[in-house]
TrEMBL record:
PANTHER family: LONG-CHAIN-FATTY-ACID--COA LIGASE, NONRIBOSOMAL PEPTIDE SYNTHASE PES1 (EUROFUNG)-RELATED. This is Class I adenylate-forming enzyme family protein. It comes from Nonomuraea salmonea. Residues 389-463 form the AMP-binding enzyme C-terminal domain. PROSITE patterns: AMP_BINDING. It holds the Pfam family AMP-binding_C. Gene3D superfamilies: 3.30.300.30, N-terminal domain of ligase-like. InterPro entries: AMP-bd_C, AMP-bd_C_sf, AMP-binding_CS, AMP-dep_synth/lig_dom, ANL_N_sf, ATP-dep_AMP-bd_enzyme. Residues 16-338 form the AMP-dependent synthetase/ligase domain.
Length: 473
């Protein structure tokens, strides 16, 4: 463990960058040396405001060099940094900001005692950085997406953040090393509070690359405009990009890596993406509670998630077979949910994290996921996992995407209901789809209804939000 607390590894990366560009925003380019200056001033401003170890500091910031500097400065002073995603509904925003927050830093005009980022940057730069983080203190709260209910705040310590490999090239696992070689120009957008956006941004800097702030409305246009080599992308957004490239191709010749995370990708859709975009798709698996668990490179056969790094411990717990629930132990995992002891006890068990995901390893040591323990439908008192139903429907050439939900049923207790996005130019045969499911999975898994949708609704995190899919009445 390094003698200095986090963010020492990040500061070392910036110092090594010197005059090299590390962040581009609109018409500005910020070097490593300039970023260190911004961090020093932000840290001085936070300390002038009386903030330090044990204080919760919420960051309501956009995607700018100054926002990045403020986040790093929060770690410099040893605060508990809380990222706030943009566009949160009022009730969720209130929930996030009510969790032991001492101060809110914002780059937007505000009142109510918030700290203006511009005022923090008015602090003098004395050329020094004193790191105040204590190993066992909580360094940040990272909120889950809320796809299974109210977002939970995962508490990660300074010691855990220091154990991360993103800023330490000698510790990179093979898949991360392959990804790092493609991160010359990495698009950042949406929010730096995103665990994935932030961590791969740090990896980019350590790999000698540049973070480029982009307008996320059109990923293809942003890639072209910024000559981007890499970005992160959700599964629904990947599908849209592939469809757009088939219809009206953009020049994406600079693109070398898209890190897809948040939800599984059917093998056929992943192969299609590789066919249209080239060997650029990296499929990541991790959780807010654990951080990164495994990463499949474009050379790993789908639908595997690659070989997990040696530093990650995974147990598949099922006494009756090879497939079971994944329990994971990572160097960077959270210590629990902030202010939620009962939920913590359910998920964080004897040093392990219950992922609530079902999976197995193949003969080559690659990890495969097959569903979630709680993504189920109970038909006539028999439990059936929804993942296999979705994957079976998605094998039809008429189906581009398939989503299944469970709903009460007067005769069976519950019944599965399917929502499908048709493949381009195809008209699905509902009878054939029901026969397909019955032949492979049995009559209990046959959807009671099948509804055609244009696209799946998404949560603020960008993940599919099946709670918004309502079966026809």
């Amino acid at each position: 463990m390094p003698a200095d607390p986090y963010p020492r590894p990040v500061l070392d990366v910036l110092a090594a960058a010197g005059d090299r560009p590390v962040f581009e925003h609109e018409n500005r380019t910020v070097s490593g040396a300039r970023m260190l200056g911004l961090i020093r001033r932000c840290a001085a401003g936070l300390r002038t405001a009386g903030l330090g170890p044990g204080d919760g500091v919420a960051m309501r910031l956009g995607v700018t060099p100054e926002a990045f500097a403020a986040i790093i400065a929060g770690y410099v002073v040893g605060a508990r940094v809380v990222g706030v995603r943009p566009g949160l509904p009022a009730d969720r925003l209130h929930h996030v900001l009510s969790q032991d927050i001492t101060a809110v830093v914002t780059d937007q005009p505000s009142g109510g005692g918030d700290l203006a980022l511009g005022e923090l940057l008015d602090a003098p730069d004395d050329g020094s950085l004193v790191l105040s983080g204590r190993p066992d203190d909580v360094a940040r709260l990272i909120h889950t997406s809320g796809s299974t209910g109210r977002p939970k705040a995962c508490a990660q310590t300074y010691a855990a953040m220091n154990a991360a490999w993103f800023a330490r090239p000698p510790a990179w696992p093979p898949a991360i090393r392959e990804l790092a070689s493609r991160l010359q120009r990495y698009l950042v957008f949406g929010t730096l509070s995103s665990l994935v956006m932030y961590e791969y941004g740090i990896l980019t800097l350590a790999a000698g690359g540049t973070m480029a702030a982009a307008d996320p409305s059109s990923l293809a246009d942003a890639i072209v405009k910024h000559r981007a080599t890499a970005s992160v992308i959700t599964v629904p957004r990947l599908y849209k990009l592939v469809a757009a490239q088939r219809d009206t191709p953009s020049d994406l010749s600079t693109l070398r890596a898209l890190v897809v995370s948040g939800s599984p990708i059917p093998a056929a859709r992943l192969r299609e993406a590789q066919e249209v975009l080239g060997p650029v798709v990296f499929h990541g698996y991790g959780q807010t509670e654990t951080g990164s668990i495994s990463l499949a490179t474009p050379y790993d056969p789908p639908p595997s998630l690659g070989v997990p790094p040696d530093a990650i411990d995974i147990e598949i717990r099922n006494p009756s077979g090879e497939t079971g629930e994944l329990y994971v132990r990572t160097p960077t995992q959270a210590i629990g949910y902030w202010g939620a002891p009962e939920e913590t006890a359910e998920v964080f068990v004897d040093g392990w994290v219950r992922t609530r995901d079902l999976g197995h390893f193949d003969a080559d040591g690659r990890l495969h996921l097959v569903g979630r323990t709680r993504d189920v439908v109970i038909v006539n008192a028999e439990l059936h996992y929804i993942g296999p139903i979705e994957r079976t429907l998605a094998t039809s050439p008429d189906v581009a995407e398939a989503y299944v939900t469970a709903a009460p049923d007067e005769e069976k207790g519950e019944a599965p209901h399917a929502f499908i996005v048709p493949a381009p130019g195809r008209t699905p045969d509902f009878g054939a789809l029901r026969d397909l499911v019955q032949d492979r999975l049995g009559p209990a898994c046959v959807p009671a209804t099948i509804t055609v949708i244009d696209e799946v609704p998404t949560a603020p995190s960008g993940k599919p939000d099946k709670r918004l899919l309502k079966p026809p009445s």
